[in-house]
Amino acid sequence: MKIRILEVDQWTSTGNVEDLTLDDFDIDNVRGGDSEAIRVIGIADARIREVEESWVPTMGSVWYRPGANGKLEHWKATYDSSG
């Protein structure tokens, strides 16, 4: 079964993503953490996708799904910790 999720880069995920809903998400409204710096650098990424529950994010990606209250909740992540 496919579900609709928000996929963001791991730096954008350090912002206030969980204060937003899937329907009103706008990457320019994410604040805090490294989210603003990554937008200035120009490599921030966000997209709405449909994925299978068994799938996992690609390296450096974080997935959010709508929670019971309608706000986004962290669901899955594959962080890039290479240095």
Structural commentary:
The chain has 83 residues and is mainly beta. It has one domain (2-78). Helix content is 8%, strand content 34%. The protein contains one helix and four strands; from the N terminus they run E-H-E-E-E. Strands 2-1-3-4 form a four-stranded antiparallel beta sheet, with no helix packed on it. A hairpin with a 5-residue loop joins strand 3 and strand 4. The radius of gyration is 12 Å and the shape is globular. The N and C termini lie far apart (36 Å). The relative contact order is 0.32. The model has no long low-confidence stretch (mean pLDDT 97).
Please outline what is shown here.
With 83 residues, the chain is mostly beta strands. The chain has one helix at residues 35-41; strands spanning 2-9, 46-52, 61-66, 72-78.
Fold blueprint:
Elements: E1 2-9, H1 35-41, E2 46-52, E3 61-66, E4 72-78
Antiparallel strand pairs: 1-2, 1-3, 3-4
Spatial order of strands in the largest sheet: 2-1-3-4
Number of helices in the DSSP assignment? 1
Q: What's the helical proportion of residues?
A: under 10%
Strand pairing plus helix content: what structural class?
Answer: mainly beta
Strand content: 25-35%
Mind summarizing the main beta sheet?
4 strands, antiparallel
Span from first to last CA? 36 Å
| Assembly classification | single chain
Number of structural units classed as domains: 1
Q: pLDDT below 50 for ≥5 consecutive residues: which ranges?
A: none
Mean pLDDT across every amino acid position: 97
